[in-house]
Amino acid sequence: MVEKETMSTDGIVRLSKIEVYPQFLDEYVVFATEVGTISLLTEPGVLTMYAMQDKENPCMITILETYSSQKAYKAHIASEHFQKYKKGTLHMVKNLELCDQTPLNPDNIIKNTIAK
Questions:
Q1: Which of these, 40, 38, 37, 29, lies nearest to 88 by C-alpha position?
Q2: pLDDT for 49-93, tens place per residue?
Q3: 51 φ, ψ to 5°?
Q4: Cβ atoms within 10 A of the Cβ of 38, count?
């Protein structure tokens, strides 16, 4: 795993709310898990990539994403693994909402790691 950058003043905290078509749910989960794992392990500016599935409606996926800076976010969306995810899941996504957040306590640091 790469050494992580620290959050800059132009860092991003985002909730990506994704509704997946039911017939593609299992396949989507594979794509989302792969891109999250690769991003955390290889990108210093990807601080958090935490995907969750709604217990009552499994087709609703929420991903907590944090990026150290705008530059880190741009590098992430240009990466080969993100482009594979985006192109591979485009037809699976019924709805996508990107909700940028402002942390109430910016001193509260989230650490997201992959256990290997």
A1: 29
A2: 999 999 999 999 999 999 999 999 999 999 999 999 999 999 999
A3: -90, 140
A4: 19
